Each structure stands twice: as structure tokens, then as C-alpha cells.
Amino acid sequence: MQPRQQLLDIWKAQVAYSWRPVEGGGRGKQWHWGGRNDSDAVGDAQQLLCLLFPAQELPELNYADPDATSDAVLDALAGLGDAVEIPIRIMRLIENYMEKHVDDEGVPVYSGGSNMHRVDRTQKANPEQRAIDVTEGFALAIPLCLTSLTFLADFGPTVDRMGRTDLIGELEQVEQSVHRRLLGAITGLLRSFAVSTFDVDDEFGRQLIALINVDGQPDRKIVRRFRENAEEIIASLRNITVGSGGTAGVEAPTKLFEIGWSWSVVEKAPDIPDVSDTSTQRAGRAEDAPYLYFTVVALEAIATLFSARVMRRNLLTEEEQRLAQSLQLRLDVTRRYWSMVASFGGGSKWPLEDVPWRTTDGLEYDYYTLLVCAVATENFGASRGGDDDLIRLGEVLTELANRGRITRRALTGDRAIETHFPGVKAELAGIEKLDGPAMVWNMVDFAPLLLKRLYHAAGLLVTIEARAQLLDVADQVWDHLARRRIREGRAARLWDQPQQTYQELPNWFEDPSWHFTIRVVEAMVIAAQFATSDPARSRSLESLAHELLVEAEHVYDQELLRGSGNAGPALAQEIRSVGLTIEHAKEIVDERPGTAFSLGVKALIDLDRLIAAEHDAETGV
What we know:
Elements: H1 3-18, E1 19-21, E2 29-31, H2 41-57, H3 71-76, H4 85-100, E3 116-118, H5 127-130, H6 135-162, H7 165-191, E4 193-199, H8 203-212, H9 219-229, H10 231-237, E5 255-261, H11 292-305, H12 308-313, H13 318-342, E6 357-358, E7 364-365, H14 366-381, H15 388-403, H16 417-420, E8 424-427, E9 439-443, H17 446-460, H18 464-483, H19 514-531, H20 539-561, H21 569-588, H22 593-619
Antiparallel strand pairs: 1-2, 3-9, 4-5, 6-7, 8-9
Helix pairs in contact: 1-19, 2-4, 2-6, 2-19, 4-7, 6-7, 6-11, 7-13, 11-13, 11-14, 13-14, 14-15, 14-17, 15-17, 15-18, 17-18, 17-19, 20-21, 20-22, 21-22
């Protein structure tokens, strides 16, 4: 799929769509915020991340240093100017975003705006509903701010060399506004964490028991096993003392519970004390219950706070680091909880394998299974160790590609098409208290999210055959996504046009969905990183390579004893070359056994040729 080239194509298409002549006949061009949805803090963050995220994750796509920017990047971003103009305009886009998405007092907002849809279209949404901070807004702000800080740090030396005091002052102001938004996003995620408890005999309890009781055991036994498996999780919840969450009654022996992130700051979430800027800590409105979708976006955002790049560059202030530790605790306990539920019982069948996943409020969607996979993958590949769990998870991902009509043809009237458009709806419980209609959040990113999960799982796998199977499915998912790319108009080469794959859909779009496009960008970044990672190692091949090198080294030593190393210059050079080949193969055999095996075979062939030549010389044949 050539992920780097795809990212460059996306950049070129994005600049062509967003960098437009000034409206009203003015001179020059300006950035157009928004796409299929109107401009808001969430959509605009996704739009800006399409430019920033690849450049910071893939060094060869970086444009912060004009002297080091590649020709391919300059060509993709040519609409923004030359090598010097590009980073200046990117800096000002960051500045524009930070200034645009604030309230009347200049406090950062994290609202979803047009991403929230009315259940009853005849009712008008209250402006206060549209303006409410959402968890995805907090989550997007974290990678947006971290990539912005990385870019500004890389661009700073160029600004210093240019000696432009106006740019130096502008860059410092942008950094301050970025840190303010980042601090607000961290506190927002701390206050939107939810722990929902329920009795074993109420509706939520019965739904959870039915989900995890794949072996048909008595309910009381399932409850006891759940409590036993959750002991360490409950102990960790006791340490959550900042923001919302905590134990929330989960210690009662008859209680079941769920943990994760709600869609916004939970109702009655306490303010976080000892924070230098408390202005973003607005009153909570959301139901104190986790949503799988918002849990996934929150976890992915929190993970970026502890990435190698962020830690190495020391991007966080001491205050941000202190608060981030509280988020890390939530990240760890949430992953452990959902991994435990997904594989409850550890027997021949997991709840995760009983597709589709059923939530405690009785909703069943393949999309929910995919979200649980997203939460559980890291634990399956790391703390639990081994490939067995990852192989089972990979089989679930493969089934989801089939059930989602990505690797299989859709039937007429197939309900699976709804997963792609209009998508799965999540009711934003609590928003109706703002004197407006009930509202939902549409989730339409099934295909690119599946591609991300396939590459993530493949990157954790060691078993070559299992990895190859996932990569084959990933290629098919990418073919599906490529067919859904907008083909004409201003938004050409961006996403999403689902009707091109599912002809029975009535909707045709002229503008891009930044929500969908950023998911594709994220998948391409993971694919590019995967391509540069070490290849999977075959244990059997590694063992065979070791054995072959033992033979090669033994034959080589025999030749040295026979005096080949002291022969004529040409023969001595050849025998030394064989020795270097064997030595190099021994150095790389643990990392690249296939290459080491090939080098060992070459060494043995060369040695056999030398031995044969010597034999011919001795016998005169």
C-alpha cells in the first residue's frame, strides 16, 4: 500500500482542499477550517493532525527544518509555499487553532459541535449543548498539543538562525497557548473517567453475567470468579484519588462494575486542586458510566503522553507530568479490566470471540467487538506474553472484516452496511439536561480502525504465519478503503465516499470527513512504522540457522588447519572473505535468522568450491 506515499498524497489533497483564496475577492489564500461538518474543536483538531501527526511520527516526513525537508515533502506541501514558508504557515495554523477554539473569556474549549446529532430532528439543539466539552475533544487535544510542541521545538533553531524577533516572540506565545490547552485536556480526561457499579440481579448485572458466562456456569459462580479476577483492579481503583472515578462502591462483594471514560466530564466530578489553571474545569454533565468508544480514544491519547518521543524530548512541564501519572494509572487499570472481561474464564471460548459484543445496556454491534479488541490488544501482547492470545485476537479481527462486509461482498439490504454509514450511534446520556433534545454521537470509522488494529496486532506477533495472515487481511482492508476514497471535486483523494463501495447508500458527499481521514492517516503511520520494524523471527529457522553456522564454522576451521589461509594471495583472500561472512552471520542470527541462514549457505558453497579446487590441484585433474 506504500504508506509513506499515501500520506504524501493525503497532504497534497488536503492542501488543495483547505488552502483556498480569501473569500470576498481578497488577495492571497487562507486556511479553510471544516469539511463535511462545520468547524468545531474536534473536527478542526482532526484536520490539523492530518498535517502534524505523520511529520512527527515519521522523521523522513518532517518539514520543521527547511534544510532537511525532502523533495517529496516539499512537493506534497507545495501549495503552502517553499521550504521556509511551509513551517511558518504550519506554526500559524497551530496558532489560529488555539485562538479559534476558546470561549468568550479566552479559555480553551473542547466541544464536539456538529459531531453531535439530534435524535428528534424536529427539535432545535441548545447552543449550550453544542458547546459542551467532550471526551474526544480532550483526547484529540493531547496528540495535537504534543505534535505541535515537537514541531515548534524543531522549528525553533531555524527561527533563531533567521534572526526574526517577531517570529521568535510568536513561537513562544504559541507554545504557551499549546501548554494551556494540553493542561486542560489532561484535567478533562481525569474528570471524565467513570466507574459504574451495579447489582448482580439488576438489568446491567444480568447483561454482564450473560456476556462473560460463555460456559453456562451458575451465576453465583461467575460473580465469584469475576470478583476474584478483579481483586487487583479494585486495589488499583483505590489509588485513584484525583478527579472522577475511585472505587465508587465496587468493593461490595455483590457488586459488578465497568470502568472507562464517559462521553464528557461526569456529573458531579470534583475539581482538581493544585492546578495552575483551573479555568477549563467546567461543570460535568455526562452520565457516570463508561462508553467503549470514548474509552478507546482516551486510552490512545494517554498512551502518547508516555511515548518514547515525548519522554526523550521532555515535552511536558512538571505539572503536566504529575497529572499524567494519574492518567497512566487509569490507563493501566482500564486495559487490565477489559482484557479480563474479554478473555473471562480463559477457556476454549472467550466472550470476545462470541461476536458481536453485547454492552451492559443490551446493545450488540460488531463495532463494539472491535473497540474491545483495541483496548485489550496491548495487554494480550505484553503483560500476558506469548502469541497464543494474539493469534486468537487476530482471528476475531479477521472475522470482523468478513462480518463488516469488507473482505466479503455485501448482500442487498445487508445491515452490516449500517456499520459504515450512518454508523453506530452512542446516546450522550445527560446532555438533555441542558434544556435541549437527546443527542447521539455517530461512529463511522469501522474500516480504518480495523486496519489500525490489524497492524498493531501484527506488530506484536512473533509467529510468522500468524503475522502473514493478518497482513493479508490488512491488504484487503486497505483495498476496501482505497475504493472509498473521494475521486473527484475539491475533496478528491480524501475520505469518505462509502457509496462507491455500497451502492445502495443514498448519500453522496462533496466534502471530506476529517474524522474518517485522520483514522486513515493514523493507520498509514502505523503501517509505515511496521514496515521499518524488525521482521518476525521463525524459531525453527533460527534454530536451523544456528546449526548451519556451526557446520560452516567447523568446515572453515578445517580449511585453516589445512593451511588454506597461508596459500597464495588470491586463495587467502577468498578464505578470509568466507570467514567474514560467517562472522557477520553469527552477529545477526538472533535478529535476522533468514538472512543469517542465507549467508551460512553461501559460506558453505564457497568453502565447498575451495575444497574442490584444492582437491583438483592435488590430483592434477
